[in-house]
Amino acid sequence: MNLKRKIKNLISMEDLDRSDIEQLIFLAQKIKKEGMGKRVAHSFISGLLFFQESTRTRIGFQVASYRLGGDSFILKETRTSDSMLFAAESVEDTVKVLQSYTDIICIRHSDNDICTRLLPISKKPLINCGNGDDEHPSQTLIDLMAIKELCGSLDNLSIAIVGDLRHMRAAHSLILGLSKFVKMSVRCISPKELSMPEKYKNVYINSGNILTEMTEMNLNDVDVVYMAGFQPKTPVKTISKKIRLAYQANKTTLAQLKDKSIILCPLPRIDEIKSDVDQTKFAKYFEQSDLGLYMRMAIVKWLL
Length: 304
Ligand code: CP
Prior knowledge:
The protein is α/β, with parallel strands linked by helices. It has helices at 18-34, 56-67, 91-98, 114-118, 137-151, 169-178, 198-206, 241-246, 251-254, 285-303, and strands spanning 45-50, 71-75, 104-109, 126-131, 158-163, 185-189, 210-214, 224-229, 262-264. It has 2 domains: 13-135 and 292-303, Rossmann fold (3-Layer(aba) Sandwich), CATH 3.40.50.1370; 137-289, Aspartate/ornithine carbamoyltransferase (Rossmann fold), CATH 3.40.50.1370.
């Protein structure tokens, strides 16, 4: 399948339209159905520049590259780290040097502006694997694929997004992604001081879809519960156990769900979903995670 529109980078869900998302999901589903295909070794190299911790995204893009016939290198310990403070190098210089070794760059960094800083100097396709507390678009494409596979459609759905919606970048990209679809009703559930920032909400509201905000864990009538979770520490404070548990998916909160509701989570899970939920029919987060490989392969294929 040839994707209709060529996009050089994956930086924000705002850059994609509905057709891009649908085509990426189609491509990922095709890879899932047809298998990994024949591997032709060393056809391309992915540079995985992770200035923040990651399990799924880093290993996911590494394996996706390998499965597509490419290879990868990972940069973790960098000259920007504290241990190298006296020989510090800017991320820009690191990228200028390493991009000559790679065909695609996947980056995660604590700076919200990292992609804006790198785009003018980047000569290779850039995948934003998490920029500070702003966005995580590749995670959202996995989330949307999971919703499409499990609910059958990306329109006409009621979706609750629960947790620290101020800081969780997967929640920001998700609401931007959902704004591309129609007849959506999104319920943002969070403590008041951790509510969804205006800039993401406004894009979604301007799409004509419905948004409700609440502080109570009200999951009545939702099709999808997206457990965005809480960072153990925000930049300004630690979230207390009491608050975390007030927004937990557990057997009590699940009693509100419809028979066909599903629970998704970008993972890692800390305590936002009680482990005994895993055995219920609602728990779909590990199935969602399994789709990550196919979607990351589709993204790499698309950008290359
Ligand atoms: N969901 C996600 O981004 O997980 P990692 O932090 O492990 O990459």
